[in-house]
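Can't paste images in this forum, so I'm doing it all in text. The chain is below; anyone willing to post the predicted structure tokens underneath?
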Amino acid sequence: MITHIQNRIAGLTYRAGKYPKKYHKKIKPYIAFTKATLSNPRSVGAACPSSPFLAKVMAEQVDVKKEGYVIELGGGTGRITRALLEHGIPPDKLITVEYSPELARHLREEFPDIQVLEGDAGKLDQLLADSGNPPQHIKAIVSGLPLRSLPKSTVKAIKKNVYKLLDDKGLFIQFTYDLRTSSSQKNKFRLIDSSVVYRNIPPARVNTYMKRV
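Text version of the structure:
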């Protein structure tokens, strides 16, 4: 898969030489993703950047009319970040968490109006507390992290933080490459929506959970 991305970069680089302005934005995410993957594959986890179609489906699960912050876990190349902003989430109400220094730098350059926290999503509560202006109400946490590829201890810590920080009836939106129908996660979350996005590489299922009160 990394070879596929490198080939895609090569093609975009060739066209960028002919049309620099047109292809500049297209090639930057792939370069940032490849650098992060090569330097620390485990920290990235995903096979390739999320498609705009997957990002759009995930963003549309968030109710823009409801008050509160939206936390994005694993900002990556910014596909989901951009989809959330285009969906109507105000920049000052969106906080993105990214573990990779390369991708965190890329996100800050692409989205200077949002807050980007660099660190482990399993320590989300501490990252927010140390941010200087921790959000008081979090209505949704949108995860771009492929949890199945992460260590079990990290996944457990992430889910614990998600439940702890979400408002009552807040939403936890997670994608997975496992296309089987999901179920509610024990007594903490209730599955309220699930759909498959086939226009993603590989196809992914988007599950939306509501925090049980």
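The chain has eight helices and seven strands. The chain has two domains: 2-41, 52-211.
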